[in-house]
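> @MW can you paste both from yesterday?
MW: sure, first one:
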Amino acid sequence: MAKFDVKKEGHYRAKLGVFDLIEIPEQTYLTIDGTGDPNTAREYQDAVSALYPIAYGMKFASKKDLDRDYVVPPLEGLWCADDMESFTSRRSKDEWRWTMMIMTPHWITTDMFTQAQAKAMSKKDASPRIGDVRMVGLSQGLVVQTLHIGPYDEEGPIIAAMHEHAYSQGLTLAGKHHEIYLGDPRRTASEKLKTILRQPVKQPQ
């Protein structure tokens, strides 16, 4: 059985030092919302730990019941704040609002999600936020994206440059800052972490 791996799709590929303008297809995600510094907020840890049991539960059900296996996609995040400089020059993480996400293949049904969520909630060590996880569609359309290699705290200048590139092309920012984490910070040195940085944009009217 061949495993589907979303990381091999074109829109999950980005180039270091290049700002690509691409169209993102509508996708479905497991999502959970929160606020605050992801490095220190317990809310963030509880949120991320709520996503994975459901994601893996759906994967196992897909393999068993549908004979369709896949690699659980990477963690992603949508980030916003009242002042965008909190992402670029100031990096004021306490001001951040976030939605953490894991993409789900198109054949995963609502019933499969509901069953995986219920099973995850029944575990003794379940995250207190498993009940807050939703499965929703996201349509971003046109985006500018690039690849960042290195610590997350060094993203600021690249995000600022990505915004300036969009403005120079006559584009306007049209959605939340989006990050796709291709590396695992628990197992990868910070200088080798790979992150896709993505910004939805709009063409001039």
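MW: second:
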Amino acid sequence: MKLDLQRKRILELVAHCDPPTDLKKASLACGKNHAYLHQFINRGTPRKLPEDTRHALARHLGVDEAVLRPEREASVPAPMRSAGPGTAQPPFGGVGPSGHAGLVAVPEVRVSASAGGGANLEHEPGGNDWYFDAGWLRHELRATARDLRVISIDGDSMEPVLCSGDKVMIDLSRTAPSPPGIFVLHDGIGLVAKQLEYIPNSDPPRVLIRSENPRYQTYERTVEEVNIVGRVIWFARSL
């Protein structure tokens, strides 16, 4: 049978879901038999996806249920951010920049990048979720959602590159200060966002920690003295 937009969208979401899934797993997650979604998509049975099943499928795929509505009922939510914790609102009407509807959530955590010594981004949830196209994350940022967190910048040490109130996305899997870049790290005093660069041939190995704002001094730490949380790979700023 010819697939309508709703059925095509389900196939795209299943294909680009992170963590990976398939029609069988998705059917079981909806409380249905393993062939339910296969029959719905390829045989047109049932003709219409029940509302409770659509909501369960959306939860399994990590998207707003509006993305899975039939074409004539589909809404076009605008914000990239959710309205609050647990309220998913995908951008671009549910279709990401790559042309696929494979949206994934990146959690925002409460800590700021210049406050709270020893904060652990893995265990301090409580902000909103941000939704991004999985293909864009994978191909443009070379990242996967499970390794990403969004936090706020507090202070002016990284101005004009990063300003107080900016939201930054951190890749927790990228903790090596090479090549140089902006990292979130605990420098022995607090959690900070700084330009970080490995000092070649240093013994013991040392890193240069630099602010963009010339009012703040550059300083060094040994690799043992710093805890690199992750590399900053994206930011957002309110106008």
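> thanks! The two ends are 47 Å apart (CA to CA).
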